[in-house]
Design goal:
The protein is α+β, with helices and mostly antiparallel strands and 110 residues long. It has helices at residues 21-32, 60-63, 76-84; strands at 2-8, 11-20, 50-58. Strand 1 and strand 2 form a beta hairpin.
């Protein structure tokens, strides 16, 4: 994806050029990342092709920090709708999990 981001005073500004929505979802997923919380962003639009975009938002990590002044940008969920015309929803879905019960240091023969 051809894009740039800049963050200042808790506000992130991003712009992309000729980007497929799969790249945009990757960017949004990265922006939603918080310590100890893993969130996936899934493209359910069925839109093909590439798009130019620009967005300005306060990331979830920055929402919890105190700044000298209130950031002059919407939260990421509102910004996606306002700037891109897309709806970003927080939905719980089942996920596959791999559980490792134990590990042997020395391999054993079958």
């Amino acid at each position: 994806m051809k894009y740039f981001t800049r963050s200042e005073d808790g506000v992130t500004v991003a712009a992309g050029r000729q980007a497929p929505l799969s790249d945009l979802t990757f960017f949004l997923e990265k922006s939603l990342r918080q310590p100890g919380i893993s969130q996936r962003v899934v493209d359910n639009t069925a839109l093909a092709g590439t798009y130019d975009f620009g967005i300005q938002f306060v990331s979830p990590v920055e929402e919890n920090r105190s700044h000298n002044k209130e950031p002059d940008a919407p939260r990421i969920f509102m910004a996606v709708e306002q700037y891109l015309g897309l709806n970003l929803r927080d939905v719980k879905r089942p996920v596959e999990v791999l559980i490792v019960d134990g590990v042997d240091r020395v391999p054993t023969e079958n």
